[in-house]
Amino acid sequence: MNYNLNGYIIRNKHLNIQLNNRGLNYGDGIFESLKYSRNRLNFFEDHYFRLMASMRIVRMEIPMNFSPEYLEEQIRKTLKANQLEDQSARVRLLVVRKAGGLYSPESNEIDFLITVKPWEHDAYVLNERGMEVDLFKDYYKLSGLLGNIKSTSAQLYAIASVFAKENNLDDVLLLNEKKEVIESTNANIFMLKGKELITPPLSSGCLKGLMRKQIMELAPQLDLDLKEENFSPFALQKADEVWLSNSMHGLRWVEKYRRKTYASEKAAEMLKKLNVKVALSLD
To answer: Which PANTHER family match (predicted)?
Structure first.
C-alpha cells in the first residue's frame, strides 16, 4: 500500500511514525472517512466543510493550501498510486497536530495522512440480514460540541466494539450522561415510529454524520415527519424501524434489539433515495 503524507506518496515500508506523534500519544487528531465510487468522492463538499469546522473546534491551524481542490487532488493522487482510481474505495483523511509538547502542544500546525483501500460496492447496498444490537452502559459519551467531531480519541468506541464482539452483537448503542440513546459505535441512529423519523440532536453529543445529513434532507420525499429529539432506550421498544447510518454503508437496518424486532421496508426505500442522490450528483 502507498500512503500520502503531507502531499508526498510514500511506500508502506518507508512510512515512519514519530514516537512523539500527537495522534499516537494524545489522540490529538481528527479524520474523515469518504466513499469513492464511479470516479467520484461521495458528498465531498460536505466532508470538506465538516473537516474545516472540526479543525477550528480543536484549534488546529488550517494551511493556506487546504482548499477543496487541493485535498481532492491529493486523494486522487493516492488512489492512483494504489491502482484504485477505477474502483470503489474507502478513503481516510487523517489530520493530526504536529509533534511536540505534552498535553500543551508546541505548535498548532498540522500533518495529514491519506490512506485508501478497496471497497466492495459502488452503490449503497442494504444489509440482507438485519443487525442485532443492545445497549452499552459501562461508560457514557458526554454531550456537547466535541462529541460531534470525528476524533482519533476513540477509546469509548473501541471498548464498546469489544463489548459487542464479546456478546455476539453486530453493534451496540451508546448513551450520553443523561442516559439518552445517541448513536452506535460507528453510525448515527434513526428511529421510525409511524410517520415520524426521529434522530438525536447534535446537542446530545452524537456525531455530526454526513449520511445523517443526507437522510434528514431526504425524509420529506418519503412523506416522513423528521424530528430531532432526544429519546431513551425505552422508546426503542415502540419503534417500527431502527436505522444506523454512516458514509460507507449509507444505512443499515436493525432487526433485533433485545426481544423487540423491526421491519426494513422504509429503510430500503431510503437507501434507494440515497443512491439516486449520488447518481444525480454524477451528472
So the answer is: AMINO-ACID AMINOTRANSFERASE, AMINODEOXYCHORISMATE LYASE
Q: What is the 3-state secondary structure (H, E, C) of 236-260?
A: HHHCCEEEEEECCCEEEEEEEECCE
Angle at 60 between CA 72 and CA 22, to 5 degrees: 100
Say if CB 100 and CB 107 are below 8 A apart.
yes
Cβ(116)–Cβ(79) under 8 Å?
yes
Please name the residues in contact with 91: beta carbons below 8 A apart, sequence gap of 6 or more: 32, 33, 34, 35, 36, 41, 75, 78, 79, 114, 115, 116
- Amino acid 208 reads K
Check if the beta carbon of residue 181 is closer than 8 Å to that of residue 157: no
- Listed in sequence order, the residues at least 6 apart from 162 whose beta carbon sits closer than 8 Å to its beta carbon are none
3-class secondary structure, 121 = coil
Query: What domains are defined for the chain?
Result: 2-118 (3.30.470.10), 131-282 (3.20.10.10)
81 with 2: CB under 8 angstroms?
yes
Task: Name the burial class of residue 168, with classes exposed (0-12), middle (13-18) and buried (19+) by CB atoms within 10 angstroms of its CB.
Answer: exposed
The pLDDT tens digits for 138-184 are 999 999 889 999 999 999 999 999 999 999 999 999 999 999 999 99
